[in-house]
Write a structure and sequence with these properties.
heterodimer, A: Rossmann fold, B: globular
């Protein structure tokens, strides 16, 4: 097996506030293989966006990394200075597409001005070279080339999102991290954006995608691997097909049942909501963090916390229901 | 309407609004001084005849002559008509207190001193205040911000006349580093010689500082909040993760935060006139504030009207310039009002 592109090991990160410490990422291992689309799913407030920032080494007070390593091609990003990461990693090896593309661009600059400012931080290219690079890439992706000479408000939401993805990846980064890239878009625009990202992967503009979302149906269309996050922890991971067709963790199941799927059972079952609310990350519940909302709760769940245990070579789950199977 | 550019329509609309405002203002400035109890001619004669003895008949004759000369016997609507028709011809009238000098000449000789004092002072305070405020915002929650913010708060609340008097008392009266009054030494004639310019700057320092120091605080507080707010925008995060340097991003943030401050700048060009009035009195600086004070204390109708007309015209012109500038700086406004 080849070395993974990005490997996060034993990551713990908290927001240190006066109210207390918000443990938004509490012991996470995550792996993005080469040539893969890894989905990271969970409810709002489960810590996925914080995990993304940690994986990007974009850590600023009040957020602090308590422990862990982030190996990108074997190099630990957390050992680098922010300035070094900015120059050598962001936009060069790892690119990020933010949650709200609508406001992600400086409203008073033409898009090409931002692109020039960004690219010249990483390469000695002249302005003209940046413009032609940018136009060639837009053509390749079937986007209108004149859009870069416009102001952000002159583009539609979907177009803005696609242009942002295109300009984020001008330097052919190995990894593209997208945070809820389609949440604000209508279904047909969503499809165009997803198709464009997959095309970019096929054309080797990027190697892998880390796709963060709360929309499981979207993930179904694109992901090869999926991580399910709950209250700062990974509760289940594995190849996408397993996660979608035979989820093990009660939380994963609940997530699947809460959205419509094409399978006939979905229609019979109807939509099931998850009772309760996501727990506080300042004082998380004792034992398993999901136990107050879990329909299969057992005595052991209230007292001890299940570890994330591999149950096959590619798959793992943090739930006592399945640990006993492994043990027996 | 494909033939007329939207930008021209935008300017015309703004211009029309300004003309309407100006006419409304003319009515107010005609009515207000006349609502003050008293009679300018009586005040002037009382002053003159305090010094020189004269028999009552002469006084009465002079009084009647002056009242006729200034049209003060006429009914009020005729006075208004005279005022407006003279104004249309570009005549601001003759001063009563400074008889027989023309109002336009008087204002013209005092105005340069005010403009020379105020425009640099406002611009310097605006620039320094915005830079300091942005710096404090950038260094938020550090020692820099913790030290600067209280200074801004105190400065912004200091009464400018109080600071003017303190500066005058300490640096001019007690320490004798700067002159006590005037815009230049009384013994000198205004000229473009190095000696005169040096003496002028020497007189200029204290009034200038008294305006700048107080104004910095307000600008800095405003800019600090604007920049803190702007730094939280999504585009700042995205630009960072594209690998842009802090310097570049601060450039973006500064430009986007300064838009409301430009409006503030234009407004303060007008409102600081009131502040300059007291500053000019404290330092006996021969500007329009000082002239306006003389006009008001002698109820000199034509001079009050003339001075205000000049001041308000400046303010309205500044507003128009800002509207145009805004459309130029912010593409969103350009699109919504002007078209690209």
């Amino acid at each position: 097996m080849s070395e993974p592109l990005l490997l996060g090991l034993g990551l713990r990160a908290s927001y240190v506030l006066r109210l207390g410490e918000v443990r938004a990422v509490d012991g996470v291992d995550i792996e993005v293989p080469r040539d893969a689309v890894v989905g990271l799913a969970g409810e709002s407030g489960c810590g996925k966006s914080t995990l993304v920032n940690v994986l990007l080494a974009n850590v600023r007070p009040p957020l602090r990394v308590k422990s862990g390593k982030i190996l990108l091609d074997g190099v630990d990003l957390l050992q680098m200075s922010r300035e070094e990461v900015r120059k050598k990693i962001w936009g060069v090896k790892v690119s990020y597409v933010p949650q709200s593309a609508l406001n992600a661009l400086n409203p008073t600059k033409r898009i090409i001005e931002l692109v020039k400012d960004a690219i010249t931080q990483h390469t000695p290219a002249t302005d003209q070279e940046v413009v032609s690079l940018c136009k060639r890439r837009l053509e390749e992706l079937n986007l209108p080339t004149d859009s870069i000479h416009k102001y952000p408000h002159e583009l539609s939401g979907g177009m803005r999102q696609r242009v942002i993805i295109a300009i984020s990846t001008l330097l052919n980064p190995r990894l593209l991290v997208v945070d809820e890239p389609t949440s604000a878009l209508d279904v047909s625009t969503q499809k165009q954006v997803l198709k464009m990202m997959l095309d970019m992967k096929r054309n080797r503009i990027i190697d892998s995608i880390l796709f963060v979302t709360h929309e499981l149906p979207v993930l179904r269309q694109v992901a090869s691997h999926v991580y399910i996050m709950y209250a700062g922890k990974i509760v289940e991971y594995g190849p996408a097909d397993y996660i979608f067709y035979s989820p093990l963790h009660p939380y994963t199941k609940a997530l699947m049942y809460s959205v419509m799927t094409p399978e006939p059972e979905s229609r019979e079952r109807g939509l099931v909501t998850i009772p309760g609310e996501p727990p506080s990350l300042i004082i998380p519940p004792q034992g398993c963090r999901f136990h107050p909302r879990c329909p299969y709760v057992m005595d052991i769940c209230r007292n001890s916390e299940p570890r994330l245990v591999p149950i096959s070579e590619e798959r793992g789950v943090a739930c006592f229901l399945h640990h006993s199977e492994v043990a027996s | 309407m494909p033939s007329i550019s939207p930008f021209i329509i935008y300017i015309l609309r703004k211009g029309l609004f300004i003309v309407a405002t100006f006419f409304a203002f003319l009515l107010v400035i005609f009515a207000l001084p006349r609502a003050i109890p008293g009679n300018p001619v009586a005040a002037l004669l009382a002053q003159i005849f305090q010094q020189a003895q004269a028999n009552p008949d002469t006084v009465k004759a002079v009084y009647r002559k002056f009242m006729e000369e200034f049209g003060l016997y006429k009914p009020i609507h005729e006075q208004l008509f005279d005022f407006l028709s003279r104004l249309m011809a570009g005549d601001l009238g003759t001063s009563i207190a400074f008889y027989p000098r023309k109002v336009a000449d008087l204002v013209a000789s005092y105005l340069p001193w005010t403009l020379g004092l105020l425009i640099p002072a406002i611009l310097v305070a605006w620039a320094l205040g915005n830079l300091l405020g942005a710096w404090a915002a950038y260094r938020r929650r550090t020692r820099v911000d913790n030290a600067l913010l209280p200074v801004f708060l105190v400065l912004s609340q200091v009464p400018y006349y109080w600071l003017a008097m303190i500066l005058l008392y300490t640096l001019a009266v007690t320490a004798r580093v700067f002159p006590v009054a005037g815009a230049y030494p009384p013994a000198m004639q205004p000229s473009f010689t190095p000696a005169f310019i040096l003496a002028m700057l020497h007189h200029y320092t204290l009034p200038f500082l008294s305006i700048v120091i107080v104004a910095i605080g307000g600008w800095a507080i405003g800019m600090r909040v604007l920049v803190i707010y702007e730094l939280r925008s999504d585009y700042v995060e995205y630009s960072e993760l594209l690998g842009l340097s802090d310097k570049k991003i601060l450039g973006y943030v500064f430009r986007n935060s300064i838009l409301p401050q430009i409006t503030g700048l234009a407004l303060s060009m007008g409102t600081v006139m009131g502040g300059a009035l007291i500053t000019e009195l404290v330092f006996s600086y021969p500007g329009t504030g000082y002239l306006l004070f003389r006009a008001l204390s002698t109820l000199d109708y034509p001079l009050i009207q003339g001075t205000f007309i000049i001041l308000v015209s400046t303010l309205l012109a500044a507003n128009l310039i800002v509207d145009i500038l805004y459309a130029y700086i912010d593409p969103r406004i350009r699109v919504s009002y002007v078209g690209d």
